[in-house]
Task: structure prediction
Amino acid sequence: MEIDIVMRSLHQLFAAVWVGATVYITVAVLPALRDGGGSTEFVERLSSRFTVLSITSVVVLLLTGGHLAGTMYTFDSLVETTRGNLVLSMTALWFVLAGVLHAGTKKLDAGVSEGRLREPASEAYPWFVLGSLLGVALLVNGVLFAYL
Ligand code: HEM
Result:
C-alpha cells in the first residue's frame, strides 16, 4: 500500500517535471537563443542539466510505471480493457518522447560544441515542439485514467 503511494507520487512528480521542463525550453529558452541571446558555455550547462533531468525521468517513469502496471494489471487486462490500452499507449508515447528529446538535445549540443547558437537552436526547435505535444498528450493520457 505505502509503496504504491510512493510509486504513484514519483510517477506524477517526474511526469510533471519532465513535461514542464520540455515545454519551458520550447517556449522560452530556444526562442531566446534563436534571437541571439546566451553564450555557448551557458547553453552547454543548460543542455547538460536537461539531459540529466530527462534521463532520470525516463528511468523513474519506466520503473514506477512498470510497478503500477505490474500490480494493477494482468497481460489480459492490458490488452483487453480500455484502461489497459491507456497504459500501453502511455508506454508507447514514453518511448517516442524519449527518442524525440534525445534527437532535439543532440541537434543543439552538436551545433553549440562548434561555437554556434542560433542555427542549432532553430534545428532543435521542431523536435522540442513535437516533444511538448507528446508530453501534453501523455499528461492527458494520465488524466483519462480518472474517467475511463
Ligand atoms: C514506461 C512508461 C510508463 C508506464 C508503464 C506507465 C504506466 C502507468 C500506469 C500503470 C498508471 C496507473 C494507471 C491506473 O491508475 O489505472 C499510470 C498513470 C499515470 N501516468 Fe504513466 N506510465 C509510463 C510513462 C508515463 C509518462 C512518460 C508520463 C508523463 C510524462 C506518465 C504520466 C502518467 C500520469 C499523469 C498518470 C496518472 C496518475 C494518477 O492518476 O495517479 N506516465 N502510468
Notes: The CA atoms of residues 33 and 118 lie 6 Å apart. The first helix runs from residue 2 to 34. DSSP finds five helices and no strands in the chain. Residues 2-144 form one domain.
